[in-house]
Amino acid sequence: MTELRIAIVGFGKIARDQHVGAIAAVPGAMLAAIASRNASLPGLPHFATVEELLDKGPQIDAVSLCTPPQVRRGQAAAALAAGKHVMLEKPPGIGVAELDPLIAMASEAKRTLFATWHSRHAPAVEPAREWLAARRIKSVHINWKEDVRVWHPGQAWIWEPGGLGVFDPGINALSILTRILPRPVFVIAAELAFPANCQSPIAANLTLTDIGGLPITAEFDFRQTGPQSWDILVETDEGRMTLSRGGRIMAVDGKVVADAPDEEYRELYRRFVKLAASGTSDVDLAPLRLVADTFLLGKRNIVEPFVD
């Protein structure tokens, strides 16, 4: 089988911690180059920008964009125009509409555009979806709280317009929610806490529902210290289902029924290799639409400045 030669564009923490190892572990995928202004990987060709990579770099088939979301649209467009498959880290962009021309470009070029949601590939997510499909759901609560200083140290872009703030992790929860529930959901109210010196929120409380009126609440907070919380609690007619550790562990009434090692990013690259083989795209924007709607209708509260 011919390997998919992939260049990583943007070589920050997530690329180093997750993408490099995942590519190495997936048959049919090969890391061929790095494009980053600030970092490189010994033994691999390195370029400062995606444009330099495409112009002067080795033969590649695809790019994996791990840059901040504010710049991904232009990079994806350049790669698709050069005939490359494109994988987008989450979130796929800073807005919903900017993805439409990329989808059209990929379709016309018969190239893959893959908007990834790594948390959907956590090992307990599919068991949870299957379990819920056979039950009547009464309510859902999301508790997603982490320490920004641990997970995004020194990353000023996350506080800039388009950086999403607390929705950078929060969108992971929304990606799981939109996968495990049987019907589409939408936001009906929200409160966003913006530090006085930031353009993106540090915390948010959301109220959502579906067409049947299912009560759904979510609490996101970037100020959590100590133990981190990535939990979804679902009350049903047959007990409480809990997804914890970001979708890694599923329990029903406190009894663990699914727990497996994390292979989220390996699953993403397995999917990317398969999609690229047929030139098929996979772009589900449901989680991003929920975030966009939250910014559109949410009440803004100003809180104390954030100091990294």
CATH class of the largest domain: Alpha Beta
The assigned CATH architecture of the largest domain is 2-Layer Sandwich
Shape: globular
Helical content, roughly? 25-40%
Question: What's the mean pLDDT score?
Answer: 96
Determine Rg (CA atoms, Å).
19 Å
For the biggest sheet, the summary is:
9 strands, mixed
If strands are numbered along the chain, what order do they take across the biggest sheet? 14-13-12-11-7-10-9-8-15
- Assembly type of the shown chains? single chain
Give the distance, in angstroms, between the N- and C-terminal Cα atoms.
47 Å
What class would the helix/strand composition place it in?
alpha/beta
Beta strands, count: 15
Q: What's the number of helices?
A: 9
What would you note in describing this structure?
The chain is α/β, with parallel strands linked by helices and 308 residues long. It has 2 domains: 112 residues, Rossmann fold (3-Layer(aba) Sandwich); 155 residues, Dihydrodipicolinate Reductase, domain 2 (2-Layer Sandwich), CATH 3.30.360. The protein has 9 helices and 15 strands. The chain is globular, with a radius of gyration of 19 Å. It has a 9-stranded mixed β-sheet. This is Gfo/Idh/MocA family oxidoreductase. GO terms for molecular function: nucleotide binding. InterPro entries: Gfo/Idh/MocA-like_OxRdtase_N, Gfo/Idh/MocA_oxidrdct_glycsds, NAD(P)-bd_dom_sf.
